[in-house]
Protein: Nitroreductase
Organism: Staphylococcus ureilyticus
Amino acid sequence: MELQDAIAQRRSIKVFRRDMNIDDDALYEAIQRATDAPNHGLRAPWRVVHIAKHRLGDMSKQLTEIAFPNLRKKQEDHYKVATNLGGMLALIVKEDPRQKESLENNMAFGAFAQNLMLLLFEAGIGTCWKSPAYIFNPEIRKIFGVKDDERLVGLLYLTDLEDLERMPHRERQHNQIIDKF
Ligand SMILES: Cc1cc2nc3c(=O)[nH]c(=O)nc-3n(C[C@H](O)[C@H](O)[C@H](O)COP(=O)(O)O)c2cc1C
């Protein structure tokens, strides 16, 4: 797949109504290859926790007990969506107390994440980066083993690509990006 096609055709997959499966070997290969992203000082400020298909239900129960206590319907809805996925990745950035290094780490993670989403797209795996408010909840962080010097920046939902055509191409504004010095 041409790079420009991957960039233009990748879409966030936001339909989770079918039971989906993905190739975990292809997932792991894409994660390794995504680390070619630029990162200052080669600090590699990224790691992921893979919630494999067979662990999604257990994870959903733990997560929703904390995120949606006593909200049975929300818990069930989350369970249905989560267990339909092909897997999930908890996205974790290494924090740095220094302002410059912190910025660099977070930017590098964005480059890693886009590499990863494009490589997965090429491998036939769909993604949607989710950043629900509960990623900041210390108890949720604990579920995924996020350390004190790390930041949980999202959950990457992993899908197949059967619904790709149904995903709207959210047009970007190309004007007013470039100003002349
Ligand atoms: C850092 C980040 C956080 C996001 N969080 C969410 C989210 O919480 N829920 C969601 O449905 N999509 C989320 N998205 C996906 C965006 O909504 C999506 O990229 C945007 O609508 C453009 O669509 P496209 O990816 O199909 O081009 C997130 C994307 C990024 C980069």
Observations:
- The beta strands are 46-52, 87-94, 126-130, 150-159.
- The chain has six helices and four strands.
- The helical segments are 3-9, 24-34, 56-67, 72-84, 99-122, 138-143.
- The chain has a mean pLDDT of 97.
